[in-house]
Amino acid sequence: MDITQFTTAQAQNRLQADGLETLGLTGLQLAPRWSTTSAPTFDPVALTLALTNAECPFGGMLTWHVHGNEFTDAQGQPIDAFCGVIRLHPHAQQRLFRVAAARYANGGTLAHPLPVAMLFRLTSPPDETPRRIEAGDPVPPPKDGSLPASLVVSFHDARGLIICPVAVAAMFADLIQGLPGLRYPKAPGTVGDAGGLTAIAALPTSGAILVQFADLHGNLYQPTRPGNVMNVVSPGPSTTPVDHATGYATLAASQTIAAGSGDNGVLRFGFATRGTLDRTPLSMPALPATLPSPPFPATTGPTLARQFLRVVVVDPEWHLLGNRDVAPRNTIPGDDGTTPADLVPKVRDRVAIDYAVDGVNTWALADGVLARFQAAGTGLVYACSPAFAAFGLPPAPAPGTTVAWPAFPPPPSPGPGAATNVAPGQGASAAWAGPASPDVVFTVKAAAAPKDAHIRVYARRFAEIASIGKQPSFVRGDGGAALADGSNDVRILLANPFGLGPGDPHSPGIQVDVDIVVTVRGGQRKLWSGIRVPVDPPVAPPVNTFGGTDRLPLVPPEMQGWCPVPLFGLPRTTPAANGGTLAALSRSLASESIPRVGPRLPLMARFETIVAAGIPDAGAGNGALSWQAMVTGARWMPESRSAQHTQGNPGNPAGPDIHAAGARVTGALAYDFAWHALRRAKPPLPFPGAPTLLDGWILYGAGDNMNEPATPPNDAAPNAGTSMGAALQTIAAVCDTPELSLAPESAFEDTTTVQDIVDAVSNAVNPGGTPPTVNSPNGDRLLREIRREYWVAKHGRRDALWSLRRALGEARELIYIEGAQFAPTAANNGGMPAHMLDLAQVIIDRMTDHRDLRVVVALPWDTDFAHSGPPMNFETFVQQAIGARKALVSAFPNIISDRLAVFHPLGFPGRATAIRSAVVIVDDVYGLVGTSHFRRRGMTFDGAADLVSFDRVIEDGYSKTLRKFRRALMATRLGVPVGTGPADATAEWAALELPRTAFGVVRNLLGEGGAGLIQPLWEGYNPDVIPATDDEADPDGTDGTTLLATLTSFLAKA
User: Fold this and answer.
1) Nearest-angstrom CA–CA distance, 695 and 704
2) Fewer CB within 10 Å of terminal CB in the chain, N or C?
C-alpha cells in the first residue's frame, strides 16, 4: 500500500499555487461585495442591513436555527426569530484576530470587536442540515423554503453580541486593500460595486465611531444608581451624558469617555475586548500611521470610514454585592433590610487573588500565607475551620503554576525506582494496630514496592442494606497510603477497615479484603484487586508521612476557631443543654475555652476555613499590617490533601476523595477575612471563667495593628493586583454572640462613644458584671465592628443570597455551580418575606427568558450528611437531600431542561467524591468561592464565608483569571487533562475555554453515560428510610419560631 506524505515543500507549493484557499475552511477568505444589485439599506437603530440578492461575506459553515437566541440584537435582547447563520471556522476566527491586531492595534491591544458570524432572518422555520459555504456564494434559501426579498442581516462577535454592519464593511474593505490575499479569488464582483464593501462602508451614519455600552455579562449597561452614568468628553472640556436608554453614543476621534461626576468613584470601565477596567478616561484608539512590511505590502496606515467599539461599564458594588437596597433596582428585588447600609460588605479594589481547584493547591496557597508570616517573625495570625489536625502543607507554587504529583512530594535523589511486575499481594501481611484499636497495619513486601512509589491500599467492605435497591452494597473504603523507600517493606496504617464501633471486639480469624494501587513517579497506576490477608495480633502502628510543612504550630490555639458537628461527620466533645430559647440553645453548644468552639444552633455547621496572617508594613502610616488570607471549604485536616483521584491520590495521605476549591487574597480584602477569623477565635468580651488568653476581639482588635490597610494607588504599586472582591458572610440569627440578639436596637443605633457600646455588650453577655474600660484612638472603627456584631446576632447575615440573586438574574451565557447540594433556597411561597428567595427559581426564570443561557451543576454522588443509623439516624437527612436535588432537577421545564447538565465527578473507581467548597461562576465575569452551598440552609442557616470577585483584566470579553479558573475547575471535575500548551491540549480542553462550548463538553459526556469520566445524576432513593422534613434537614435560619420548635428536639444529635 502506498502512503502519501505531505511534506513542507508540498505545502509551500500548494500555498504558492492556490494561496489561502489551501487552508480550506480554516482560512480567512473575504468577499468584495455583499449584494449583486444595489447598496443595502442600513437601520442605524437595529444595526442591521437589508440586502437584495445577498452574497456571503466570508467562507464558513451555514447552519439553520428555529431561533437565534445565541445572538443579541442592538437592544441587547436575544434574537427570537427563524434564521440562518454563516459562521467562521474557529481557526479562521483566530486568523482574523491576528490580522486585525497587527493592522489596527497600534502597538497595544485590539479594541475593536471582530465579526465571526452573519445572521439572516427567515420568515418560516428552516429544516436543513449544516453545510459549508464559500465567500461570495449567493445566500441560499432553506430547503423547500424561500428568502425574503429584502434579507435582513446582522453581524456578531464570538459572544454573540451585535456589531455595526457598516463598521464590518469598512474593516473588511480595508483588510482586502491591505492584504489582497484575503480576497477570495472565486468570489464575484469588486469592492466598488453598488453592493460592494466600499459602498456599504460609505452608507450614512451618525458619526465616525459608534460606541456600545455594556455590562460585564454583555447586556446593555443600565445605570444602577442615578449618578452612575457615563459622559462623552469633548476638548475644552465639555461633557455630554450618554443616553443609556439607547445604550449607544457616537464619538469623534478627539473625544473621550469618562464616568459622570455623580458616581462617587464607583464605576470601572474599559474596552470590552482586551484591557484593564479602571477609572482612567478612555481615548478612542488611534489607528497606526504606518504598518510593517511584511506582512503588509503597503506601509501606509489603515483607514476606517466607520468604527464600532464596545465599552464595558461595571458598578462593582452592584456586580458583587447585588441590590442591597430595600427597593428593587434594574428588575432585581432588594434585600430584607436587616443590614444597615454602612455595614454591608466593602468592595476592595487592587487586590491580588489566586484561585486553586483542588485541596492540594488550596493548602499550598495557605502555606504561602503562613510561610510569609513565619519569615517576618512577627505579626498577627488567625484561623478557623470545622476541625484542625496536623499535616504537611504543600509548598506555595510560583505564580501561574500548580503543585501536583509527580513533582510533589519532592522526588528522592537519586531518582525514583522503575515499575515492577511483582504483585503487592505476594507476601503481604496484616495486623491489628493495637489491642483495642479498630485500625489495621498492612505490610507490602519491598520487592513489590518500587522506590518512591505511592502505595494505596483500599479496604473492601460490604455495607448492610435493608433491601435490594439503588444503594451500593460494596464499598471501597479510604484505607491507607505510604511512599516506598525502595529498601524496606512498606507498612501502611488502614483506618478502621471493618467499620468497628467504640468497644467492638476483634473477631478471631478475621481477614481483611483489599485492593492495592501502586503509582510510580511519572507513570500510570497499577491496580491489584481482591487480595485477602488474615489479620494477625497487634503490632506498633507506623507513621506514614508525605512531605510538606506542618504550619499548624504557627497558629496558637487561642487564635483558632473550631466547629465540629456530628451531622457532617465531626463529633463534638461538649454536651449541650436546653435553655428554652434560641439564644440559650446557641450558647449551650459553645465552648468558651481554648481553642474556642463558638455558639451555634443545633444541626448547624460553620463550614468555612480561613487562614489569615498580617505582617508589618513599613509603608503604612497608620500601623496597619500587610495581610494575606486563604478561604476555602477544605478542612484543616489531612483529608484535604486530595487530588488526582482516579490515580489513587498519589503523594498524599489516604482519605476521602475530596474536591475543595479555594482562593488566596491580599490587602484590605484579606483584612476583612482576618476579622471574620478573629470573631470565630474569640468572643467580643471575655466570658466569666474563660481562660486569660481568650480576651475578646474588642480589646484585641483595638490596636493600630488591626487598622484597615490602604488601597494601593494604582495597579503597578507594590502588593497591588487587578482584582476586585468582597468578603461575604452567611449565618443564622442568634448565633454570633446570641446574647446580643435580646438587646434593644436603640443601644446600638444611637451610641456616641466606644465605651457606651462596650457597656451594652458587657451587660448582654455578663449581666451585672463590670464592663472593661476601652480607651482606643480607633474608636470609630471599633464602633462599626461592634454594631456589626449586634446586627448579625439580631438578624443573621445573608450576603451570598443577595449577591447571587443579582448575578443569576443577569446571567447570559453559562452558570457553573458546584457544591454539596443543589436544592431550592426557599419554600415556594412567592418570595415573601424578602429573604424567602429561591435562587433555583431565579435560574429557571432567567433560562426561560434567555434561551441561550446554560447551566452546569457538579454535585457529589453522595450528600455531605454523615451516614449514621440510630440513635443519630442521619440517614433520614441523607434521603431528604437526595430527594430534594432530584425534585429540583425534575422541576426544570422541558423547554429549558436540555440546557441544564447535572453530573457527579468520579473518584477512584468504586468511590464517590465529596465537594467541600461552594463555587458559582457566572459568564466568566462573576465568581463566588466559599461555603454557602446551594440550598436553603446554605443561604440562611449554616455559617459560611465566601469570596466574591472578578478580575478587571478583560480578555475576549471575559474576566481573565475567572475564565482560567472555571476552565481548570471544570476540567478537574470532568476528568479532562489540563492542557499546558498546544502539544498536550485535548479537544475537550480546547472546548472548555468558552462558556457555550464548555457546556457541550458536559452534555456530550452525559450523552455517553459519563464515558467513565463522570456520572449522571444518581437517584439513589432508599424506600426503607423515611426522609427528614425540609424544616429539619434544610432549615430556614431566619424563622425563629419554627427553628426553636424543630431544633430543640435535635439537641442530643447537635
Assistant:
1) 17
2) N
In the prediction, which pLDDT does 574 show? Answer: 66
C-alpha to C-alpha distance for 814 and 531, rounded to whole angstroms: 46
Residue pLDDT, tens place only, 155-186: 999 999 999 999 999 999 999 999 999 999 99
For the residues of 464-490, what is the DSSP string, one character each?
A: P-SSSSSS-SEEE---EEEE--SSSPE
Q: Is the pLDDT of residue 48 over 80?
A: yes
pLDDT reported for residue 577: 62
Q: pTM (2 decimals)?
A: 0.96
- Cα separation, 857 vs 838, whole angstroms: 16
Stated as kind and residue range, the H or E segment containing 514 is strand 511-519
Query: Between 845 and 1042, where is the model more confident?
Result: 845
Phi-psi region of 923 (alpha: psi -120 to 50; beta: other; left: phi over 0): left
Helix (H, G, I), strand (E, B) or coil at 726: strand
Contact 243, 230 (CB under 8 A): no
Assign 743 a pLDDT band (cuts: 50, 70, 90): confident
CB proximity list for 169: less than 8 A, separation 6 or greater: 34, 197, 200, 201, 306
Q: How confident is the model at residue 2 (pLDDT cuts 50, 70, 90)?
A: low
Cell of 751: 451610641
Other beta carbons within 10 angstroms of residue 573's beta carbon come to 8
Categorise residue 491: left if φ over 0, alpha if ψ from -120 to 50, beta otherwise.
beta
CA distance 677 to 682: 9
pLDDT at 575: 62
Residue recorded with cell 504550619? 551
Residue 453, Cα to own-chain centre: how many angstroms?
A: 34
Contact 110, 49 (CB under 8 A): no
Closest CA to 701 of 795, 779, 803: 779
Measured CA to CA in angstroms, residue 83 lies from 25, 36, 63, 148, 1038 at distances of 22, 21, 9, 11, 49
> How large a percentage of the chain has pLDDT more than 90?
78
Give every CB contact of residue 710 below 8 A, 6+ residues apart in sequence.
620, 622, 624, 668
The amino acid at 675: W
Q: Which residue has the higher pLDDT, 265 or 108?
A: 265
Calculate mean pLDDT across residues 135-159: 95
Beta strand residue intervals within 88-150, DSSP E: 117-121, 131-133
Cα distance between residue 669 and residue 671, in whole Å: 5
CA 917/CA 609 separation, integer angstroms: 10
Where b means 16+ CB within 10 Å and e means fewer, 465-501 reads: eeeeeeebeebbbbbbbbbbeeeebbbbbbbbbbeee
